[in-house]
Amino acid sequence: MDFDVVVIGAGGGGYPGAFRLAKSGYNVLMVDPKGVLGGNCLYSGCVPSKTVRELAHTIYRIKNVLGQEVKVDFKEIQRQKDRVQEIRFKQHERELSEHGGVTFMKGIARIRDPKNVIVDVDGKEVEVRAKYVLIASGSEPVKPKFPGSEYCITSDDLFEYKSKVSDLPQDMVIVGGGYIAIEVASVFSKLGVKTHLLVRGDRVLKGFPEQMVKTLLSSLKLDIMYNSPLFEVKKVGSEYEVIFGSGGVKRSLRTNLVMLATGRKAVIPKGSEGLTNEKGYIKTDEAMRTSLQNVFAAGDVNGLAPYFHAAVRMSLAAAYNIMANGEPIDYVDVRSVPVTLYSIPSASYVGNVNPSDAIEVTYNMEDEVMSQMYNEMDGVLKLFFERGSLRLLGGWMVGVHSQYLINEIGQAVAHGLTARQLAEFADQHPSTNEIVSYAARKVL
Amino acid sequence: MDFDVVVIGAGGGGYPGAFRLAKSGYNVLMVDPKGVLGGNCLYSGCVPSKTVRELAHTIYRIKNVLGQEVKVDFKEIQRQKDRVQEIRFKQHERELSEHGGVTFMKGIARIRDPKNVIVDVDGKEVEVRAKYVLIASGSEPVKPKFPGSEYCITSDDLFEYKSKVSDLPQDMVIVGGGYIAIEVASVFSKLGVKTHLLVRGDRVLKGFPEQMVKTLLSSLKLDIMYNSPLFEVKKVGSEYEVIFGSGGVKRSLRTNLVMLATGRKAVIPKGSEGLTNEKGYIKTDEAMRTSLQNVFAAGDVNGLAPYFHAAVRMSLAAAYNIMANGEPIDYVDVRSVPVTLYSIPSASYVGNVNPSDAIEVTYNMEDEVMSQMYNEMDGVLKLFFERGSLRLLGGWMVGVHSQYLINEIGQAVAHGLTARQLAEFADQHPSTNEIVSYAARKVL
Amino acid sequence: MDFDVVVIGAGGGGYPGAFRLAKSGYNVLMVDPKGVLGGNCLYSGCVPSKTVRELAHTIYRIKNVLGQEVKVDFKEIQRQKDRVQEIRFKQHERELSEHGGVTFMKGIARIRDPKNVIVDVDGKEVEVRAKYVLIASGSEPVKPKFPGSEYCITSDDLFEYKSKVSDLPQDMVIVGGGYIAIEVASVFSKLGVKTHLLVRGDRVLKGFPEQMVKTLLSSLKLDIMYNSPLFEVKKVGSEYEVIFGSGGVKRSLRTNLVMLATGRKAVIPKGSEGLTNEKGYIKTDEAMRTSLQNVFAAGDVNGLAPYFHAAVRMSLAAAYNIMANGEPIDYVDVRSVPVTLYSIPSASYVGNVNPSDAIEVTYNMEDEVMSQMYNEMDGVLKLFFERGSLRLLGGWMVGVHSQYLINEIGQAVAHGLTARQLAEFADQHPSTNEIVSYAARKVL
Amino acid sequence: MDFDVVVIGAGGGGYPGAFRLAKSGYNVLMVDPKGVLGGNCLYSGCVPSKTVRELAHTIYRIKNVLGQEVKVDFKEIQRQKDRVQEIRFKQHERELSEHGGVTFMKGIARIRDPKNVIVDVDGKEVEVRAKYVLIASGSEPVKPKFPGSEYCITSDDLFEYKSKVSDLPQDMVIVGGGYIAIEVASVFSKLGVKTHLLVRGDRVLKGFPEQMVKTLLSSLKLDIMYNSPLFEVKKVGSEYEVIFGSGGVKRSLRTNLVMLATGRKAVIPKGSEGLTNEKGYIKTDEAMRTSLQNVFAAGDVNGLAPYFHAAVRMSLAAAYNIMANGEPIDYVDVRSVPVTLYSIPSASYVGNVNPSDAIEVTYNMEDEVMSQMYNEMDGVLKLFFERGSLRLLGGWMVGVHSQYLINEIGQAVAHGLTARQLAEFADQHPSTNEIVSYAARKVL
Q1: Which pLDDT does position D246 carry in this prediction?
Q2: Is position D204 within any domain?
Q3: Fewer CB atoms inside 10 Å of the end CB: C or N, chain D?
Q4: Based on the domain organization, do C353 and C211 belong to the same domain?
Q5: How many domains does chain C have?
């Protein structure tokens, strides 16, 4: 079979570029083992987990503002999650059918050489010749092996389509200190589950802005056990006994569910191992080019910004640069990609949030009107402006609607807007975004 | 008494400028008949009405997504509304005490001449000399007189602090077709009230983008009676009989509550009548100058953009231009002020939404992920880009979170961002703002 | 022969796109009857004419500032002009050799159908198959026929490589009122030639900003005869008698040289006549697409902005859009293309210079420092800012260095910079550009 | 005497702010020992030196392009310089009379305390009370003392109004390696003077971008003697013997003129010594505030950017911040101030020209069309773009018109424009600015 482009992976790093190339007449083969578009994000990641989060948050609000307990069966929540996944699977099918030039193949791709890709379709090998390859094979959870690891689930098990987890546990141990661990702990706590975090080292959320993490944690009030490596999980009746270290001594906990959230790693298609960097990701430049001519990589697999929205942007950049045969016409500004932690409250940041010498302004969420309406007044907004030019370098926020505000802030960072420009704009009242102009006005 | 500046009105057009001037050492007198800061917006306008709206929306969501009816006493909702008002009154008191240079006086101001203002404090006249006057006396509902008008309330009665309306009526007639009428009808419908709109002419929401209104109305499904002037309201037991015209014949309706939402008009301080334009507003330029030297006007009273956030921006511009003694150093771009209709779903617009020849892109909310999570998939986003330059001229939206997205869109309009710039930014996933980049990417 | 793209024309609308496509691996054929790259601009247009202009200006300066007459043989000036043309022909040859994928063919192209182009090479027809065609065949002078027209030259004759005109005439009649007529009259006047302009109607420089033209003309002090259609040119010894109408009566003039500058028209390749609009240009949109799929047009031939720098920009846009197979990824903003009249002084404009309601600021060149140094203090700068936003809408200028300043102004117009942004920048002192910030600062 | 503001210094750091304050009704006293507006820049600095430079350049061009030697008496050049100075003195007088609120006093100011300034007017002390003080006392040449230093001149002697230097020396020794030394050496060489530079260390133009200096020096071909400290100057008849060290041994040179260009230092008004930093400048922040409330400093005296255009910008910022009583409303972005070395060719830079990791593009002036016309093809343009965002970080240029181009580049740096934005603009052809877009297009 002959194609212009083979796209390996049908998630955020894959399908947007595939569709864009098809729009311009390219003949594209998209290969994915899942057999559906959307990647992990849709199958078991951001979309289902945030559906659960939004419903948990809504239920929590009734109680928090109006003092009324709403009893909801977790099955109902999971059902709505499945519905959203179904809607989106269908949406992608429709998009696929609208883009005539894309052929979809369920299978596992292997790169023989830059011009030849072999796809394993149910054990049968299909040979494909292509001018360009876009690797967008994504990432997967690292599932460590230890005594009793077979009793543990990952977030994929929790959120996958038609998940087996349909009842809320009373008590839950989450192993790990990354953003998935924190999100799940926060959301399930709000749903009434007693959660405990086991963290190997003395910090959580490494790589996130330190002050933001501090602010967030003081609001989340999670039960975090630091310096607590996990040794073993034992099944005891319908419960689990979790054995872990703490301050040199072994301790144990009884719980109903153990979830591992111990990191993710790139999925490297066979034949592209030589393209990886020391961290195991496919090495790419800002134009999404790998070290091999005509081979591009986008999304989680290149480790530049492992978020769905970044993957989509990279996928499009790869598509444009394939059109230009690798003489770049599009570059991705990874620094201006916003990142959100979907805990309750959420926390978001974008740009340079550790500038060496900048004008720093703060807005406390207790003065923000929507937070007052919801009685969720925890949090802070911080903006960092370059001295002299007043250009917005970056910002972070903990609090209501951070996932929406961070886009206004991010657009400003991406396009070099200044404190004055933010100040001159009259953000809608009442909307949480107002605090962007309020904060900027403190400089003037 | 001698002051540098007298600010007439303590709402959005008044206190921000007063505080900014005080920060720069100006001696400011702020006069307001209410005796509290925040103006109508806080006392009986946007803040309390949107608190009710948010709670109504949250309750509605539980039912709409999870199929569960939450019974909430309206008293609880009004109580939370009062709490928010109290928090904000205190917040303003704190701000006032933080700005040493501002003296607050409860009273009614009258302008004798540009340098002399008389304040009526409980019937006693206080003479004040000032170098500058900032008129920010706001607007008030027009309450027409007709037989039975004494039985009718306005939105002020509904939302004022410690409102007497603490129970939901079963049935409610709203007279008017402006944005307050539509918002109240939409929100109270979601709370289970049967609402009816009596509209004098054949259109509602005049001045709003036509296509947006059409999209919104098809989603709101309100009971609107066009060409239906109100003649009389009669009290019949605990109910009201509303008599109105319709197609040349008189009709009547039985209802529990009649609310008049028949427009607002500027509050013109005595002595400044000569400064008004033909529509009864104080005439000002983009620098907030009136036709009288050293007299400025900001907020609803000048009719340029009768929204709280616009008032705040104008108030600050007036403050800066007072510092510069009327040789302007700050101008307000009224065209880039966003406007939101807080119905459920909400509708927002900003900039030029009727360009003569532009590239127009559309994104349907049924494909938007947060709308899917909430099962509120009505609505549309429209963006308008200038041909050639691809500069964003304006946009409108009906649907989930329009009040937040409109700020990202508005910042782009205000600062001349292009489709390409919007497309290059990776809006946070999942967040409704994603559709801004998705829409922009359709152009490229 | 098979190519990916056939580019018809090797001028500003042709070679930049051809080179860009070759850089991305496209196999490009470029066809031009001249046999050299650079088009009219280099062969007989902007480059040679401005070389003469710059030298004339330099000579004039010595006299004007230092009071010293420099006697220069016109042959020397023409020799330098030829040298510049030679340098640039070689430069283009080098560029051609650097872009392996471009084949150059001297000949005349005819479009059989969108996929087949026939090239007449010295009478022999070569058949070429191509996926895309870029028409960039430029424009040519309109040379009207009348008694004695064979005695008249055009600007092409004056400025072509190895021009036959090597001596300055004492007296010269220029027929026409367009920018070429004005430029030649101005430059040759400065060289000591007595020039006369015969203009058919009652205006010159139609399409240029009216106020700018007025300012320019008052400085140029040319001998312009309006409403003076030309009837006949007779050879009388070594001189010419020019017979023209004036106020209903025939008049005549004796002169040494008659130059026709009576407009230009598009060169339409055979087979593409169906693609033209009512003015005889190939009709294209902002993405340089014609009404025929896979056929694009750039440069003078589409009449959108008949200037070399606009042609280059359009050519590149066409190249990018060819890469995208006509689903546009690049658009040209014709409104922000600067235009300069290379008279002495020069005059330039960009953007919207006739806004209906804008803040207009003026800077007089008599206060500008470089003009004072050169003792060339005629002229004015005008900038137009949008009310409220202070966005720079456009500007025009008559005076020293307008051709350089217009770029700073144009960048600002193209990217929506505001009066405040211009004011915040400290333009280099001493440089004429300072007046850009000085003018902007008048608003603040 | 009582004033709102005392401005110490009537140069670029002083009068713009004084005028702006007066425009807003402030009562301003401006004090300067020179008795005329314009400061050193006009009296003996950039304006007169660049007038000489422009004329030298024009004369040189005739010879360089047309091969014709123009003999010009240096007196004529100095006369034109004087004329320009006279025009500008008058211009400033006119501006002063247009700004009613500014009182000008010839004298020397001393700060008794922030609210009291004493002015020495011809030995008589005038006491002035003021609310604000703006120190803009500028800088002056450091004139070292050594045997024979009384025979040496500074650039001030060369360029002051009615300078005594009216004849060109045949041979000239310039002591120093700063920009004044290089400019004078370059310009006087072009006028036919044999120039020699004595430089103490092993580098010239410290603080300027290294690669730019290297490129410039290779074009200037100056006679520079490094590691050559000056010991003595002896008068020998009508000549001077200059004795200096070189490689450990003493050497001597005979010359007609010795000019010292050994740096400048801030002029600190008495009473403000406590406000200086370790380098002897008044310490100010980006808002032009000193460590003393209500005392501001602008221009050379604060050492932030010792250039006239920077001084003007700072002066205005100080004025706005005085209006705001020191709660800043304007900040100066020193990084985006362009700097030009007015040698022939000139060299200019702006922004960050030493980024750690950026996309760097180069354009050689031999390919630039105006350089070809003038046969001055030396030089290079370098632009530095941020990876990913493609934002222009900075640029430098050696070659024709660098002083004009640097403004287009600087506006882009100041406002965060990207390679794509520069590339999308069609710079005027033919104008040197074209290379800005040409260079940017190399990235795409």
Answers
A1: 79
A2: yes
A3: N
A4: no
A5: 3
Domain CATH for B97: 3.50.50.60
Asked which of C307, C335, C363 is the last residue of a domain, the reply is C335
Instruction: Return the pLDDT at A265.
Output: 96
Predicted confidence (pLDDT) at residue A248 exceeds the cutoff of 90: no
Q: Is the ipTM of this complex over 0.85?
A: yes
**Residue-level pLDDT at A247:** 74
Owner of token pair 């910022």: D317
Quick one: what percent of chain C has pLDDT higher than 70? Answer: 100
Closest Cα in chain D to C406: D428
Encode pLDDT of C291-328 as tens digits. 999 999 999 999 999 999 999 999 999 999 999 999 99
Q: Is residue D340, in this structure, part of any structural domain at all?
A: no
> Do D159 and D199 have their domain in common?
yes
D contacts of C77 (beta carbons < 8 Å): 66
CA distances to C30, C108, C175 from C267, rounded to whole Å, are: 16, 11, 22
Adjacent-strand bridge partners of A8: A31, A135
Residue owning tokens 């990876």: D387
Q: Whole-angstrom Cα distance, residue D272 to residue D268?
A: 7
Asked whether B130 and B4 are in contact (CB, 8 A), the reply is yes
Residue B246: predicted pLDDT: 79
What is the reported pLDDT for C246? 79
Measured between alpha carbons, how far is A344 from A414 in angstroms, rounded to an integer? 27
- Pair D8, D124 in one domain: yes
| Interface probe, candidates A5, A19, A289, A323, chain C, greatest C C-beta count within 10 A | A323
Give the Cα-Cα-Cα angle D350, D309, D212 (nearest 5 degrees): 30
Contact B441, A316 (CB under 8 A): yes
With beta carbons under 8 A apart, name residues in chain A contacting D332.
388
Longest CA pairwise span in chain A (Å):
67
Domain limits for position C434: 345-441
Positions in chain B whose pLDDT score sits under 50: none
Kindly tell me the sign of the dihedral angle through the C-alpha atoms of A420, A422, A425, A426: negative
Q: Give residue-wise pLDDT tens across range C97-106.
A: 998 899 999 9
Select from A388, A391, A415 the Cβ nearest to the Cβ of D334. Answer: A388
Tokens representing residue B58 in the block: 């949250």
Q: What is the CATH number of the domain that holds B426?
A: 3.30.390.30
- For residue A340, being part of any structural domain is answered with no
A127 and A233 belong to one structural domain? no
C286 pLDDT higher than 90: yes
Closest-CA distance of chain C to residue A172, Å: 51
Mean pLDDT, chain A, rounded, equals 97
Cα separation, B147 vs B242, in Å, equals 10
In angstroms, the CA C369 to CA C401 distance is 12
pLDDT at C26: 98
pLDDT digits (tens, 9 = 90+) for C177-230: 999 999 999 999 999 999 999 999 999 999 999 999 999 999 999 999 999 999
Global pTM?
0.97
In a domain, C340, yes or no: no
Q: Within this chain, do residues C136 and C273 fall inside the same structural domain, yes or no?
A: yes
H or E segment and range at residue A279: none
Spell out which residues of chain C touch residue B335, defining contact as CB-CB under 8 Å. 388-389
In this structure, the answer to whether residues B99 and B6 fall within a common structural domain is yes
Whether residue D187 sits in one domain with residue D159? yes
- What are C272's two structure tokens? 């593409």
User: Which of A289, A304, A313, A389 has the highest number of chain D CBs within 10 A, making it the mutation to test binding with D?
Assistant: A389
pLDDT given at position D247 = 74
- Among D335, D365, D389, the domain boundary falls at D335
Query: Does residue A228 share a domain with residue A99?
Result: no
Q: Do D24 and B320 touch (CB under 8 A)?
A: no
- pLDDT tens-place string over residues D1-59: 899 999 999 999 999 999 999 999 999 999 999 999 999 999 999 999 999 999 999 99
* Backbone φ/ψ region at B90: left (φ over 0), alpha (ψ -120 to 50), beta: alpha
